[in-house]
Design goal:
about 190 residues, alpha+beta, six-stranded mixed beta sheet, 2 helices
Length: about 190
């Protein structure tokens, strides 16, 4: 068999597979996890959590720390992230997350027990990431913020998804936290 007929058969097979997906009511792009060209934010551009339809906003009272400090704490479904919201900023942070495991983009935080990775929105309104010895948002008995749930306290909004945790101020900075990266956004 020459190469031309083989190429035509291959192209027809791929086209048939694509159309089979369309026949089921989905476009071939519907299952693609590759972002459209130009859709990813550039370096330094603000990315906000996407409140998708169907997100469940949880009752903040269910996440209040038991010591009446006014701090709300929660964990990621994987248990790797311990996060919190402190609407008064008494801890120095308005919101933040610490990781129990090393985060890929913070290799200098190689010992989470001694100097673990964190990202936060500070009381002065900046978003930062780095290494810190003290785990401000670790709390025994913290509830899990399940995938698809959002927690809002004051001006702070945090969402849990399979891609990680995303928190932001209503009119300011934010961050995303996952095993791959802790990324502050202006």
């Amino acid at each position: 068999m020459s190469r031309a007929p083989l190429l035509v058969v291959s192209l027809l097979s791929l086209t048939a597979l694509s159309l089979a997906g369309c026949a089921e009511g989905q476009s071939p792009a519907a299952e693609s996890h590759v972002p459209a060209q130009g859709s990813e934010p550039g370096i330094g551009e603000r990315t906000e959590p996407t409140a998708e339809p169907g997100w469940e906003t949880v009752d903040p009272g269910d996440f209040a720390r038991s010591d009446d400090s006014g701090v709300y704490v929660f964990e990621s479904p994987t248990g790797n992230l311990a996060c919190g919201i402190d609407p008064e900023g008494a801890t120095g942070f308005l919101a933040g997350c610490h990781a129990r495991d090393v985060v890929e983009n913070l290799p200098s935080c190689d010992d989470p027990d001694a100097n673990g990775p964190w990202t936060a929105i500070t009381r002065d309104g900046t978003a930062e990431a780095g290494c810190q010895r003290e785990g401000v948002f670790f709390a025994s008995g913290a509830r899990t913020l399940e995938y698809g749930q959002a927690l809002e306290v004051g001006d702070v909004h945090c969402e849990s998804s399979e891609d990680g945790m995303a928190c932001s101020l209503a009119d300011g900075p934010g961050f995303t936290a996952s095993r791959a990266a802790f990324t502050p956004t202006p």
